Amino acid sequence: MRFLGASETGRARLPAGGAGLRRALTSLTSRGSPGPCCVALCPAAPHRQRRPRLAIAFVPSALAALVVFAACSGGDTKTVTVRETVTRTATSSVPGESPALAVLYFLKDGKVAPTPRGVVADSEPDLATAAVEELVVGPEGDPELETAIPEATQPGSVEINGDLAIVQLTPELRDRAARAQVVYTLTAIPTVKRVSFGGGAAVGRRAFEQQTPAILVESPLPGEAVESGFEVTGTANTFEANFNYELKDATGKVLRKNFVTATSGSGTRGTFKFTVPYTIDHPQEGQLVVFELSAEDGSRINESEIALRLE
Fold first, then answer.
1. N or C: which end of the chain has fewer CB within 10 A?
2. pTM above 0.85, yes or no
3. Residue 86 has what DSSP assignment?
């Protein structure tokens, strides 16, 4: 277990356990600071000023980490001391600035796909605004991810009113895939259920079924470190609500496989939750593969892979 240095490259690693990430996001709604943290410097913005950013690294429980980030508007470097506890709280030596985890939704094969990105935020509206800013910047480090949001899009403020997020973007997005990215990103914040673009009619995830993969794994996130018995959650719309999963080790060997039944399917999206026990003799990279078996010929369809770190 180690920290990701500012000069290192490669995929960032998240703390073990999807539940911890959910707690990290939820804690921000009560003005607590989420736990996932890192060591990294934020890159300069290509065409506009951006708030400080954080990359994400695996942080062992009960150990302190230093979070170093550079204000993108200048050369000053600020240092934040973060301590991860069982409740994933954090303390900051810079008033009003705390490390947070934003879950951004880009596109993979034309469908929304989540990816984590470290940001700095001290409130739920601040997290929402930072998430939209990063969404507009676009995917980074994963060639399989794309975005439908035009490069010229300028993000504005995001207002949170109960379960509604009101987002300002210039020019206003018209493409449904681009809107789906924004809606999914903002509704990843636990209290947000609906999104209004510029004060227009509110929409939720259900309005973007065509832009949602048949099997959407929302936890664990790509790059997350997991342990045996980790929980997998998400939504699915498959034939008779059934699909399969496999957990593979670094060599491609299947460590665990089973079938899953969501709460609904065959045209109606349902939710799912299952655990994955496994045994390995040393930590390594792995993959969670989810797929549906065709009712016509038994072949794999709607397959998706999530890269993980197996601890």
1. N
2. no
3. T
